[in-house]
Design a protein that fits this description.
Elements lengths: L2 E5 L1 H8 L8 H10 L4 E4 L10 H7 L6 E6 L3 H10 L3 E4 L19 H13 L3 E6 L3 H9 L4 E5 L1 H6 L4 H17 L3 E5 L7 H7 L5 E4 L1 H10 L1 H11 L2
Parallel strand pairs: 1-2, 1-8, 2-3, 3-4, 4-5, 5-6, 6-7, 7-8
The structure holds 1-deoxy-D-xylulose-5-phosphate and the ligand NCC(=O)COP(=O)(O)O.
1-deoxy-D-xylulose-5-phosphate binds next to helix 1.
Length: 237
């Protein structure tokens, strides 16, 4: 079964636009769970332009499903994760001012750094995941760090899908098979949507989790949050 983790960053972006508490990020997260989400993902960035560190602390005690914190492992981020102790931490190689994530880790170059972090988070009882592309050598190096899972960066799949679905998914099937063979769990995310999710899942049914934010929150404007989450879950059956 593939779990749907809803990334609520964009809900916080909307809230921050006016400085008040509308929409209420905590309530939206709880409603996502109520409507069937099996996890909540947040990706705090150094400028806190969407999810703030305070949101992460507030969410922890109220969430009932899997809590996934994504981000670049700065000192502040590492401290936050160790204090909050989410279900899962996903390390992403984002620059501080990046608009959104745009690549996976070079796990070969950063092997020692990542290995140390896997130990730190593992000892704290937090499941670990590393954001990676489909390069098979870099997936092998991700396994060497001791990560529990990898999250495949699916933007290249999403952008090629409308033109050529088979070619778009092919490198992801190969990468997913390698991840499976190496004994790691498999997550995926970035630009997954109602357009491309079902095909991805049909071709890689042993996915553990997808984290989806931008497209899902956009769809909710038209369909409502409950119906949107149901539709995403239908793609994962
Ligand atoms: C790692 C990843 O792909 C997502 O966390 C993505 O970066 C979402 O963040 P934004 O909502 O800020 O684009
Ligand atoms: N890890 C990916 C994620 O959380 C959401 O990415 P997106 O759906 O906002 O592109």
């Amino acid at each position: 079964m593939t779990k749907l983790s809803v990334n609520i960053n964009k809900v916080a972006t909307l809230r921050n636009a006016r400085g008040g508490n509308n929409p209420d990020v905590e309530k939206v997260a709880l409603d996502c769970e109520l409507f069937g989400a099996e996890g909540i993902t947040v990706h705090p960035r150094p400028d806190e332009r969407h999810i703030r560190y305070a949101d992460v602390y507030a969410l922890r005690p109220v969430l009932k499903t899997e809590f996934n914190i994504e981000g670049y492992p700065s000192k502040e981020f590492i401290d936050l994760v160790l204090r909050v102790k989410p279900t899962q931490v996903t390390l992403v190689p984002d620059a501080p001012d990046q608009i959104t994530s745009n690549c996976g880790w070079d796990t070969k170059t950063h092997q020692a750094f990542l290995t140390e972090l896997m130990d730190t988070f593992g000892e704290a009882g937090i499941r670990t995941s590393i954001f990676v592309g489909t390069d098979l050598e870099l997936i092998e190096y991700a396994a060497k760090t001791g990560a529990d899972r990898v999250e495949l960066y699916t933007e290249p799949y999403a952008s090629l899908y409308p033109k050529n679905p088979e070619a778009a998914v092919a490198p992801f099937i190969e990468a997913a098979e390698r991840v499976h063979k190496l004994g790691m769990g498999l997550n995926a995310g970035h630009d997954l949507s109602l357009v491309n999710l079902k095909y991805f899942h049909d071709n890689i049914p042993w996915l553990d989790e997808v984290s989806i934010g931008h497209a899902l929150i956009c769809d909710a404007l038209y369909l409502g949050l409950k119906k949107t989450i149901e539709e995403y879950k239908n793609c994962l059956r």
